[in-house]
Amino acid sequence: MPILKTSSEKVGSKTVIHVDMPLNEQPVFPPACPCCVERLDEGAFIVATCDRLPPVPFPSCKICARHTTVEDRISSIVGPGFLALTVLIIAGVLIYRGASNVGSAGATGGWQAFGALANLRFPFLGPINAAVTLACGAVVQVVLFLIYGAVMYPVLKVLSKSSCRWFEQSVRTKRHYDRSAGDCRRFVFENPAYASRFVEANSPAKSEDRSLSG
Fold first, then answer.
1. Which helix (H) or strand (E) holds 172?
2. What digits encode the pLDDT tens for the residues 7-40?
3. Residue 144 is part of which domain span?
4. Could you tell me if 33 and 95 lie in one domain?
5. Res 136: pLDDT
6. 53/38 Cα distance (integer angstroms)
7. What pLDDT, on a 0 to 100 scale, did the predictor assign at position 211?
8. Is residue 150 located within the same domain as residue 201?
C-alpha cells in the first residue's frame, strides 16, 4: 500500500497534514496545484526537498512556483543572516556601553577605544553575564523575525493568489521514522484540500485501477 499513515498537526492557527509513504515509492500527483489547488501550468513545479532524500517536484501553477521559489531563496539566507546580524548588534551594544563607561570616567582617545573593545569580554566573565547576553540575543532574534514577517507577508500576498496556502512552503518532505513502518518519507501539506486529493490519488483503490489500466 503506497500510503502508510496520515495524520494532522496544529501549527499556530493552521492545520498541516502529514502523509507517510515508503522511501522509494513514487507518488501520484493530483491534477491541481498543491498551493492554490487550481489548474496546473506546463513546466511549473514546486520542489519538495530533503537533505537525505531525492527532491520531489510537484506539478503546480506558474504563480505558486514563482512565489515558492522566491520564498525559498530568501528563507535560505534569513537564518544565517539573522544570526550574523544578532552577533553584530550585541557586539555593537557592548562596544557602545564600554566606550560610554570609560568615557564617563574621563578616558579619551585610545583608552576609550580600548575600553570599548575590552567590554566585548562581558559574555565570558561568568554564567550570569552569558545568560544575560543570550537572553538579549534571543530578544533581538524575535524582533528581527517580526520585522521579517511584517515585510514578507505583504510581498508574498502580492506574489500569490488569494487561494494560496502558505506559511513555510505549501508542500515539503522529510525523512521520518515510524515505529510500525520504520523509515519512511513524510509529505507535509499546508492545504488540506490538496492533501485530501493526494491521499485519494495514492489510495490502494487508485493503485489497483492504474495496474488494471496498464
1. strand 171-178
2. 888 877 788 899 999 888 889 999 999 999 999 9
3. 78-159
4. no
5. 92
6. 28
7. 41
8. no
* Residue 54 located in a structural domain: yes
Residues 6+ apart with CB under 8 A from 212: none
Distance, CA of 58 to CA of 47 (rounded, Å): 6
Distances (CA, A) of 92 to 9, 17, 98, 119, 187: 41, 43, 10, 10, 43
CA–CA gap between residue 61 and residue 18 (Å, rounded): 22
Cα distances from 15 to residues 48, 111, 188, 202, in angstroms, run: 19, 58, 10, 21
Q: Is residue 86 part of a domain?
A: yes
pLDDT above 60 (res 139)? yes
In three-state secondary structure terms, 16 is strand
Buried b (16+ CB within 10 A) or exposed e, 198-209: bbebbeeeeeee
**Residue 187 belongs to some domain of the structure:** yes
pLDDT (tens digit per residue) in 80-124? 898 999 999 999 998 888 888 777 776 666 777 777 788 888 888
Question: Does residue 205 have a pLDDT over 70?
Answer: no
Is a pLDDT exceeding 70 seen at residue 193?
yes
- Compute the distance between CA of residue 195 and CA of residue 190 in angstroms, rounded to an integer: 8
Number of domain units in the chain: 2
Cell of 155: 510581498
> Are both 173 and 190 inside the same structural domain?
yes
**In whole angstroms, what is the distance from residue 115 CA to residue 102 CA?**
6
Three-state DSSP class for 185? strand
SS3 of residue 106 by DSSP: coil
